[in-house]
Design brief:
This protein has about 300 residues and is an alpha/beta fold. It has a single domain, classed as Alpha/Beta hydrolase fold, catalytic domain (Rossmann fold, 3-Layer(aba) Sandwich), CATH 3.40.50. It contains nine helices and eight strands. α3 links the parallel β3 and β4. The longest helix has 17 residues.
Length: about 300
């Protein structure tokens, strides 16, 4: 049963999303609004350290505390439809995952569409991952994690690595993953009036911006169309009322069909990436669940 607080959160998110209307604004304006909101409301937990860095020209942040393991890293890929968001919007969520998992996080800002469409985000993630390997991290000690487009990017990058016969990460954590940019799942219509955050029109617009003329069913754009054989274990969380519910379900089904170990957690009454709301009871429980999953690979 969703909490009373989640009821008011949902109403506030719906009102805010309706006012924002990202699809009607210029991309730079939308990004600034979203990032400024993140800077204002996404507070870093106490006793966390942020180290800013550049990795082969890509801005990134190390997030850690004194308890975080030094031989392991979570490569966290932020969401935002491949066109929005940054470290400012996701620093708090990444830090809370770090705390619960006991593993430091690397949070990069990959290039965004439409200026840098597919496959720029994958190329940047591959660059960061290969850099980590060069620093001495074992591939099994690197966890890919991400929300929305970041969840899709985690799967797509793993697919690219597998197809190039490169070492794969130890596990994948996908929160409300956007993995079917064709928008064919039934939840796109079934939950269109329930999801307080995402709208089908915006999802389709950002999909076109990212694909930039490539087919939306390209498996590196929409990993649900890929054979996932050989993938590492996957942990997926999704809300029952979000329009991307079908994406998560299809990804889990495809993974199981390919012999991949996968856990799918559908949170009743929750919306798209509710985990980012640090004052929401369901968010705290979900992040703890993520931490418990990652801790299995940190020993």
């Amino acid at each position: 049963m969703p909490s009373v607080r989640s009821y008011f959160f949902k109403k506030g998110i719906k009102a805010g999303a309706k006012r924002l209307r990202l699809e009607e604004k210029k991309i730079d304006e939308s990004r600034e609004v979203i990032d400024s909101f993140g800077r204002k409301f996404s507070k870093l937990p106490k006793n966390c350290q942020v180290e800013k860095t550049q990795i082969e020209g890509i801005y990134a942040e190390w997030i850690s505390n004194k308890h975080a393991k030094g031989d392991m890293v979570i490569l966290y890929l932020h969401g935002g439809g491949y066109g929005y968001c940054s470290a400012d919007t996701h620093r708090s969520l990444a830090a809370r995952v770090m705390i619960e998992a006991g593993v430091k996080v690397l949070l990069p800002e990959y290039r965004l569409a439409p200026e840098h469409p597919f496959p720029a985000a994958i190329e940047d993630t591959l660059t960061i991952y290969r850099w980590l390997l060069k620093q001495g991290y074992d591939s099994s000690k690197i966890i890919f994690a991400g929300d929305s487009a970041g969840g899709g990017l985690s799967a797509a990058t793993t697919l690219a690595l597998r197809d190039q016969s490169e070492p794969l990460p130890g596990a994948l954590v996908c929160l409300s993953p956007w993995v079917d940019l064709t928008s064919q799942g039934e939840s796109y219509s079934k939950n269109s009036d329930k999801d307080p955050y995402l709208r089908s029109e915006l999802v389709r617009l950002t999909a076109q911006n990212y694909a930039a003329g490539e087919s939306l069913d390209n498996e590196l754009i929409s990993p649900v169309f890929a054979d996932l054989r050989g993938f590492p274990p996957m942990f997926i969380q999704v809300g029952s009322i979000e329009i991307l519910l079908s994406d998560a379900q299809l990804l889990a089904e495809k993974a199981r069909m390919s012999g991949v170990e996968v856990q799918l957690k559908v949170w009743k009454g929750m919306w798209h990436v509710w985990q980012i709301s640090n004052k929401l009871p369901e968010a705290k429980k979900a992040v703890k669940e993520i931490g418990d999953f990652i801790r299995k690979y940190s020993n």
